[in-house]
Write a sequence for this structure.
């Protein structure tokens, strides 16, 4: 789930933590220096979008939210597993479908 594609600004992005975090940092640096920033990014469907600094930082924030949400779901499920008192209860524990979290 942590590496599942995620939405940002109407586009579906592949999780590439190193590239996204690096590009978002460069965007932030450019913005802080009052310099222009632009990057062409390939989406999950192989189309390309051109992102400015704000757009690239939004992608970084969306990735961060994806990871945080995934870990929160994991913590919740681990709690359910620890509290389970039967095999039936364990088998009823499932990762939520996308959008159900």
């Amino acid at each position: 789930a942590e590496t599942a594609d995620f939405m940002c600004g109407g586009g579906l992005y592949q999780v590439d933590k190193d590239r996204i975090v690096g590009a978002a940092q460069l965007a932030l640096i450019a913005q802080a220096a009052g310099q222009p920033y632009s990057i062409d990014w390939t989406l999950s469907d192989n189309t390309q979008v051109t992102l400015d600094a704000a757009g690239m930082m939004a992608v970084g924030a969306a990735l961060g939210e994806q990871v945080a949400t995934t870990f929160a779901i994991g913590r919740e499920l681990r709690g359910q597993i620890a509290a389970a008192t039967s095999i039936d209860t364990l088998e009823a524990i499932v990762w939520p479908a996308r959008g159900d979290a």
